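For this section, I looked closely at a protein sequence along with its fold in token form, which I now present.
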Amino acid sequence: MLFCSEARHLDEPCVYHEQCQHTMEFAECARGSCKCQRGFVKVVFGFREACKRKVHWKDNCIVNAQCTSRGKGEVPLQCLRGVCDCPLGYVFLETWSNSGCFKEAYLGDRCKTDKQCLQPNSYCSLTSRICTCTHGFYYFGEVCKKRRNISTITNTDDSLYALAIAGGSVIGLAFLFAVGFMKM
């Protein structure tokens, strides 16, 4: 049986799916009003509205409302230059139970996973949840430097450096100062 029904817009009352689908694609009548179908989100362009597909990290997008993640980050994904991504200063993290945008972390900053720790040769300590230098590296001027193996040092200046470290800071520094003074 054919009949005419009044076309409806999103969030307007309806009885039949056809009422919602007259005005836009991917809309349906759900619980008495026009809504976007599952997997779609309402977007508004000026005075026009539409149902656009929800998308995930690194997918193409038109508006922020389309960008979704299966978890709760510290900030939501954004549609940046036509792609869903994290805003500046945040990194996308994905685990088996969560995904989202989390703050980038530097040495000494709090973290949840290794991916947040930006400096090369750093990781997120499981015990302290702080970005730390990996084994074999030490913190030096906001970077992780490789520890030197004293037995492989051959250069005179490197030898002095090794003695300064091995001899303790006060004695080692005094030794470096004395040797440097004698070279003059």
Q: What stands out?
A: The radius of gyration is 30 Å. The CA atoms of residues 63 and 139 lie 42 Å apart. Helices lie at 17-21, 156-166, 169-183.
